Amino acid sequence: MTNPADLLREHGLPITAQRIAVLRAVSGRPHATADDIAGDVRDGIGAISRQSVYDSLAILAEKGLIRRIQPAGSPARYESRAGDNHHHLICRTCGKTTDVDCATGHAPCLNASDSHGFLIDEAEVIFWGTCPDCLGKR
Question: Most-buried pick from 6, 28, 45, 88 (CB within 10 A)?
Answer without folding.
Answer: 88
